[in-house]
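G., the chain you wanted modeled:
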Amino acid sequence: MFTLGFIINPFAGIGGKVGLKGSDGEAIRTEAFARGAKPQAVERARVALESLLDYQDKLEVLTASGDMGENLLQDMGFNYQVVHDSREPSTFEDTIEAAKTMAGLDGSHHRVEVLLFAGGDGTARNVYEAVDEAVPVLGIPAGVKIHSGVYAVTPHAAGLVIEKMLNQKLVSLLETSVMDIDEEAFRQGVVRAKQYGEMQVPAEHRYIQATKSGGREVEELVLQDIADFIIDNMEDERYYLVGSGSTCAVVMDALGLENTLLGIDCVHQGKLIASDMTEADILQLLKDHPKQVKVVITVIGGQGHIIGRGNQQLSSAVLSQLNKDDISIIATKTKLKELEGRPLIVDSDEPDINQRFAGVTKVITGYEDFVLYPVGIET
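Predicted structure as tokens:
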């Protein structure tokens, strides 16, 4: 089941048609309505959701009450769960609070695969304040000001990106800017934009056809990029379990360390501190260094397994002490494409633990290059 967060800023864009160049602030909204403005964010969100009507059996939608999502989902016949009760009328605080809940940052058990929201640059800033890079986000353009890179080009395009994910198509995960301008300055004819941060955004990915001649050389360059990214982001206080397979071996080679091709080695501060670890070895490491252990694994075998083929040392007892964010999956886009849409598989010895790691996850496919890919469980 794909868990989608869904938030509408019902006031986004109301100032555009009546010449107010924005909708930030209660005073501007009041003036907009006085000039006859009509809300448009809900209808633009409807366009995005129309692409998802045939996938309701695959969707679990978390939303906010009233015009912030609930009313539209109910009208369109979606199954949904309200996880935030909005004020009347809703405010930017509702956007922030709802987004935090959907990302599981308020202590709740919720965590969406993607947070889909309708609004403008002000809404993007609110979502960024709430989630930063905790979960991928995608904006449905509905505001007067759309300078941020987190928005799809059209509402329909936003729906199509989510549809591709539901169909287990490969999409890129991009780091894009959250921008906003000073509305008061804009009304005086001055464009004064500012970057507030970056968020992770799923985007449709176009493949480059592999060629027979020189293909291996290109593959080796990509693997080196992946290894360099992993190494450049290693933290001194962490202990890294580097898993089985030739892709992981490239990481060890780049570190200048011996590796166990069909085993798990441990790296700390650039040094090899344990080779060919057993489950018991890993459990002791987790006990000695709680919250400090990270795992680097790749796709093993022809069926897309990431756990359970060649790395059974990463047992349910080990996985129970790790979160999704503790595991880095590395693979080339070519390797993922060869799966033809089949999900990556988690197959430990405990079904409930497997389920914790199911869903959509980030796969490192180059240097600061990522795709979102579905992870299933062995059935």
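Residues 15-21, 205-217 have pLDDT under 50 and may be disordered.

Shout if anything looks off.
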